[in-house]
Write a structure and sequence with these properties.
4-stranded mixed beta sheet; 217 residues; binds guanosine-5'-triphosphate; binds magnesium ion; alpha/beta; Rossmann fold; 9 strands; 42% helix
Length: 217
Amino acid sequence: MTTPVFQPVAPIARRGVMLVLSSPSGAGKSSISRALLDSEAELALSVSVTTRDPRPGEDEAIHYFFRSVPEVEAMAEKGELLEWAKVFENYYGTPRQPVEQALQAGRDVMFDIDWQGNRQLKANAPDDVVSIFILPPSLAELESRLVKRGQDSAEVIAKRMAKAVDEISHWGEYDYCVVNISLEDSIAQVKAILHAERLKRERRIGMAAFVADALAG
Ligand SMILES: Nc1nc2c(ncn2[C@@H]2O[C@H](COP(=O)(O)OP(=O)(O)OP(=O)(O)O)[C@@H](O)[C@H]2O)c(=O)[nH]1
Ligand SMILES: [Mg+2]
């Protein structure tokens, strides 16, 4: 019997994944998303527009596009936002064009957005969105992480805790839930989800051509 010889084949073209990450404040979403961006060359973060003021260390077009309320309303009216919502006292929204370009080019986009944004994206792009909810091990643990992080006053922490309970009530609207007990494990789980979703048949738009070629010999 002869050993089959496999010729190297060109990568099979795929459509990008819209990877939504939501969580209550302090559950570890930022650490997880940073680790993914560092290790996944084909993944970029969607930069949202917001009407809130920049914080120290935040840069225009890197962390957010900082815009006025009328500017965000005008973008929404012109259909330039894939979704938008009011979170705390401000508007937040996702610019459409960079997402559409990336998906077509086979690159993935990650979204750090709340449950309202996830709901709208899922309704508008059900085949593209893969959503993950990051849960803290417990509310007590969440509060202690917020206190340890030392970024917020007691009043702000109380507000974030109240909002956390509301945010967590939407866990059932997500495709996956990751309980962030160990950051390392959570990062590995989110990567496993992304890697498997990239391989879904429906996303591999080059598969039909590959099979046709393979059958042609
Ligand atoms: N719907 C929607 N939500 C967004 C968007 N951008 C950011 N958010 C959410 O708005 C909330 C507040 O974000 P920030 O103002 O950056 O504050 P933060 O300190 O990062 O808040 P946490 O991430 O909740 O700790 C977070 O839950 C974000 O996930 C967006 O474009 N659309
Ligand atoms: Mg955040």
